[in-house]
Amino acid sequence: MTQHRPTETATQLRSVLDGAWRDLREEFRERAVPDQLLGEPGGSLEEQRERVTRQLTELAAEGYGRVGFPHAYGGERDYGASCVLFEMQGYGDLSLLVKLGVQFGLFGGAVARLGTERHHAEHLEQIMTGKLLGAFAMTEVGHGSNVARLETTATYDHETGDLVVHTPTESAVKTYIGNAARDGRMAVVFAQLITDEGSHGVHAVLVPVRDEAGNALPGVTIGDNGVKAGLPGVDNGTFAFDQVRVPKANLLNAFGDIDDEGQYVSPIDSENRRFFTMLGTLVRGRVCVGGGAGSAAKKALAIALRYGDQRRQFEAPGTEQETVVLDYLAHQRKLLPRLAKSYALSLAQNLVTERLEELHGAGTAGTRSQEDEEAQRELETRVAGLKAVQTWHALDTIQACREACGGAGYMAENELGQLRADVDVFTTFEGDNTVLLQLVAKGLLTEYKEMWGDLDQVAMVSMVSKQVAEGLVERTTGRARLQRLLDVAKGRDDDSALDDRGWQLSMFEQRADHSLEGVGRRLRKATPETAFEMFNNAQDHVLFAARTHVDRVVMEAFAEAVDEMDEGPAKELMDQVCSLYALASIEEDRAWFLEHGRLNTTRSRAVTAQVNTLCQQLRPHVSTLVDALGIPDGLITAPIAQA
Amino acid sequence: MTQHRPTETATQLRSVLDGAWRDLREEFRERAVPDQLLGEPGGSLEEQRERVTRQLTELAAEGYGRVGFPHAYGGERDYGASCVLFEMQGYGDLSLLVKLGVQFGLFGGAVARLGTERHHAEHLEQIMTGKLLGAFAMTEVGHGSNVARLETTATYDHETGDLVVHTPTESAVKTYIGNAARDGRMAVVFAQLITDEGSHGVHAVLVPVRDEAGNALPGVTIGDNGVKAGLPGVDNGTFAFDQVRVPKANLLNAFGDIDDEGQYVSPIDSENRRFFTMLGTLVRGRVCVGGGAGSAAKKALAIALRYGDQRRQFEAPGTEQETVVLDYLAHQRKLLPRLAKSYALSLAQNLVTERLEELHGAGTAGTRSQEDEEAQRELETRVAGLKAVQTWHALDTIQACREACGGAGYMAENELGQLRADVDVFTTFEGDNTVLLQLVAKGLLTEYKEMWGDLDQVAMVSMVSKQVAEGLVERTTGRARLQRLLDVAKGRDDDSALDDRGWQLSMFEQRADHSLEGVGRRLRKATPETAFEMFNNAQDHVLFAARTHVDRVVMEAFAEAVDEMDEGPAKELMDQVCSLYALASIEEDRAWFLEHGRLNTTRSRAVTAQVNTLCQQLRPHVSTLVDALGIPDGLITAPIAQA
């Protein structure tokens, strides 16, 4: 694809935003074929599904499905690369993106990570090439967030050596499952594993669901979720199983198996710990969803900013020509702080992707040491929080962009409507955002090793840890670098310039630490009898603490990235974008800072004024800042965004 | 339609929310036929359009199209009733609602209000019965908000007695016009009226666009806007005119005409004043859009609250059964303050509808006294502001409801997706919300009579009025009643209970007045040279002042309504809902109150705690509060919202 040539500054910024996998991104930009990645709005459900399946097959034929799978079975590149590729594909149609995610990430990923050699040898090549399309059947009608309570059963019959997969109630029906309604031939079914000894908690079993001709297999009832608010090209559907028998070998047995005597065996004793270890291997899904949402937000910003840079409406007095709408402060206010936040989130996304590769890359699968487990929990916490913040940001940003483009923004050809409709459910799937933020809070408040014992809603209450005050949780890598910036700022809050990076970091740190400590203090008073009520009464506080923790992680990622850049115009520009992100975030929560004596009223108002100033200062650089996002030219088709 | 029987309390609350046209609402509830009002998601554009047109014709056949038209030509009921009917129809499919609005409100309304007897006699019966479908062709490619700059021309040819309607440029093409792409046979075309003397500004001309067979007439090029982000059943399209001739009699001549000598004549001398008087007669469109959006928000809340009252997820410790999700504070926080705001906006909507009837009802058309004009401008200001706040509230609320329903909320059968997609553009059409809030600020800051002279972007700057401080602008009717509540509260801010109505009102008053005064002070320093820049730099401040003015009007409407109720459980409940609205609004802006010394930090945090408490106190009454909305049972089809 021909890319229009960005300025030197834009190129430098892009390289920073591209991060560790910048070569992969560049390769994608060159190779991306719009027809293989874009949708056509308005077709029927069946047309959209057919198109998406065709595109998936084409991309698989070009080898895109191999990224991140074990090289021993034909995989290519590394695990982190699969997330980066997903991000880049997020500039295309999101139905296709989700379909790719279901096939290669969820279905393929579960076989790769929860299965063992026998599953890999038999299925991975077929999965990577798109010849075996599969589903990831976790969610049930009655249970979305509370996966531990799934009702589907997989009962071992030692007589025959079969696992009997069954849907005992209406609420146990698998639903919203991608690849179910039309294409999937096999499903990874999450079910309570039962042997003669009793139940062993949720495990995953490979269950064939359709024959070669596409008909449901005996005992499998397949439904179609039909029309949704978005993602028309994804064939979400339902599965119900009536005593469906599969060989014991279909149990994905990396973390639990049934031996030849019919005994359950697992390297992990605690059922809870086993469950969370299994789920933990699937953390990539959340990394990808956050990254994909981030791409959607960036694409919307590119469209709205390019349009806002051309569209004129209302003349200033004494002039005949109308004013370019992006010259209005209100328009800048709508778009530029969101652009700054997209920059910030990109950089944070890069860091979690790198960390994912470190912990889950080649040779890291299988059980782990205590130390690894803590690192894994820390990653899960960060990923959960970033997923929530990225997806809400995307939703909010695409909507703001739609409104900023007026009636034109509502026309399908200008892409924002579909983007908005599609990305909506990103806030729900792979973990409901509100539930995820609670996970973040729990991760911060709970000593990991104790978490294994009891993971219900308020286990954390009785275990609020001294870790909080001691700050044992490492948030980002370049700690020393940040500490240097922070040290300079300490103790002179009200005198620091608002663009002092150390002061900004210190504000994010204070907001996160103080709110978390506050939650800790409140919850520590709980007794077993009052625990639920106390936790519930503090829920808004808990969610605030979690979100501000994520904000801090994001800000630290941004500050580090700026600090690492070579001096010059690109760094100066990036520094302003970072300040805009920081100050807009502080402004949003300035009530909290005022309430807690972290800002006085004069300074609080100065923050608002400085956000305005930064918007106006960045205004002339909008085209550079959009180019730096590196969205492949051919993937933005909106007529209003063309030069 | 059978309506399930609400409790006595719910019935009383409903009566208050129903307001002056409660009989019409009750009649609608009894008569409404779901098949005539609901859509079916997922059909093709053509299917949706066909269905909507059929429904419109059916409703017209039942007489719904006659509401609000002059009785002399077969109209029924009053002008305000047409808005209330629109609100009630807003519980059905929103494509149908918009189509009804285009036909009876915009097209029919323009003929009725901008036309005179000759147009009424010839067209109204055909319009009311849906036999003549028409379009309201105002927006052009190049001009949406800035209507005064429309480029289409209507040039009088005295030789032939024709008006020649013409589209001189690409940017003059009419676009996003409902009823254009498929159904409209005639259009009210807004164009610069030109006679031999020169241009007289924007006027409306009736232009036939299709023949009986549905083919475009000579010189008329009709385009199709195609797929949009929502409203699939509305046939938005484009018109371009190539020297299209219509008789001079087609000029809608209530405010300007061409006499037999070819001279332009008008009862209003100033072109600006004439333009705004013409637009002013169309204020009903904004009343309707606000009301329709309000209904969409209420329907979404009913769905999400009913589901939240049944859905369980995660067990509390020591219990086997999972917790009902609406028992979680976070869930209450998502939905209940928005429900309270829906109550508040309903009551404010009722007041503007009554005021519209007073000013625009039977016998009020035509030119007016100075006093009438001031009342008219005041109404326009209030309507503009309420439309912006209602439509943003709807968008935000439907989204929160969607997320609160998780994956189920994303399924088309549960209605939220289509509601969300459809209501999106309500923030843009009938006036972009941001532009409308600026209008509000202008209305508040400018002496009306001076406004006629110059209405460009910053005319207000040089005219900031002493009115601000003197509070000349009357906001609601029962001023004495409110004053009594306010007087009690004065001077003891920090001691008042948070549920003291007078204190709450005073907080809304202070926020609105102080921010408006602040804007006034900033803008008064402007000179002609610096005016644009100063206005632009203050734009966020201007928008805040406008929004808080609307908030105040809304709060006053709510406070009055509660105060008027008879003592008893219904009033007690309504009182709590009012407090929740008030405190959630104060909480949202607590940074402002802190910055301006209107709250101290202790009290600010107490507001947050009290919002939580009110959510928990209202929780047991959710079903009553939903019933009180009075949404016809049969119009909520979402499976998740059924008992």
TrEMBL record, chains A, B:
Q: What is its main location?
A: other
Q: What InterPro entries does the record point to?
A: ACOX_C_alpha1 (IPR055060), Acyl-CoA_Oxase/DH_mid-dom (IPR006091), Acyl-CoA_Oxase/DH_mid-dom_sf (IPR046373), Acyl-CoA_oxidase (IPR012258), Acyl-CoA_oxidase_C (IPR002655), AcylCo_DH-like_C (IPR036250), AcylCoA_DH/ox_N (IPR013786), AcylCoA_DH/ox_N_sf (IPR037069)
EC no.?
A: 1.3.3.6
Ranges of residues in domain Acyl-CoA oxidase C-terminal: 505-641
Subcellular location per the Swiss-Prot or TrEMBL entry = Peroxisome
Pfam families per record = ACOX, ACOX_C_alpha1, Acyl-CoA_dh_M, Acyl-CoA_dh_N
Q: What's the family? A: Belongs to the acyl-CoA oxidase family.
User: What is this protein's name?
Assistant: acyl-CoA oxidase
Its GO biological process annotations read: fatty acid beta-oxidation using acyl-CoA oxidase; lipid homeostasis
> Which EC class is this protein assigned?
oxidoreductase
